[in-house]
Structure to design on (153 residues):
């Protein structure tokens, strides 16, 4: 589905057409590499925010937040985060957070330690830590720690 974009969240006008252009991985706004936050809406639901992504010199760089469109439809435009991921020079990092469908509690998060390793934390729906595991090159490395809902290992 085609995205409609806003350069400012408060703008009523959606950027579509000659002002906005995607050339390969570079995002241009008015002919120049875009720096700032780009807000995206689904073409069929232009009044509901679906994504906001930080750009530097036309590349995704920083946080990209995806919102739950169905939640917004059912809860009078209130926003609920589905997940947050982080980019560095248009490349995904290992920093990622996913949220439970029915709450604002984090389901799991990946925290980058260095380029090819990260710590994954999984949470119970009540927000208590459920599991910690360390990954290198996308493979489990070492022991996992499991926690009871009361916080005990």
């Amino acid at each position: 589905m085609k995205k409609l974009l806003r350069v400012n969240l408060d703008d009523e006008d959606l950027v579509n057409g000659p002002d906005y252009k995607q050339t390969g991985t570079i995002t241009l706004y008015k002919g120049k590499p875009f720096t700032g936050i780009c807000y995206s809406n689904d073409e069929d639901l232009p009044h509901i925010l679906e994504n906001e992504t930080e750009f530097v010199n036309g590349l995704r760089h920083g946080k990209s937040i995806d919102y739950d469109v169905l939640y917004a439809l059912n809860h009078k435009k209130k926003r609920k985060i589905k997940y947050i991921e982080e980019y560095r020079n248009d490349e995904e990092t290992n920093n990622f957070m996913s949220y439970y469908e029915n709450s604002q509690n984090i389901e799991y998060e990946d925290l980058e330690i260095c380029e090819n390793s990260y710590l994954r934390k999984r949470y119970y729906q009540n927000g208590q830590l459920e599991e910690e595991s360390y990954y290198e090159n996308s493979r489990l490395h070492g022991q996992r720690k499991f926690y009871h809902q009361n916080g005990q290992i």
